[in-house]
Amino acid sequence: MQKDYAENYKKLGLKIAYFRKLKGLTQEQLAEILDVDTSFIGQIEAPNIYKPITLTTLFRIADALEMTPGELLDSESRSGF
Predict the structure, then answer these.
(1) Which one of 6, 10, 48, 62 counts the least CB within 10 Å of its CB?
(2) Residue 61: Cβ within 10 Å count
(3) Cα–Cα–Cα angle for 73, 75, 76, nearest 5°?
(4) Are 40 and 31 in contact (CB under 8 A)?
């Protein structure tokens, strides 16, 4: 896969971090909810790492944050990204 969408993944990771913190969750807590390693969440949220995720992962993260996947992807969302 080419890095055509690297900027989109970066924005998505930043939004996940924003909403996770808004919910009062640590990376460790989110990882536990998703049953993934904490480093995986760190990679998704890190702006300097290109970490594509699957739709299933997006759906699971959105569920954990009590949001819709669209809210995480929407460029006009509450986060201002």
Answers:
(1) 48
(2) 24
(3) 120
(4) yes
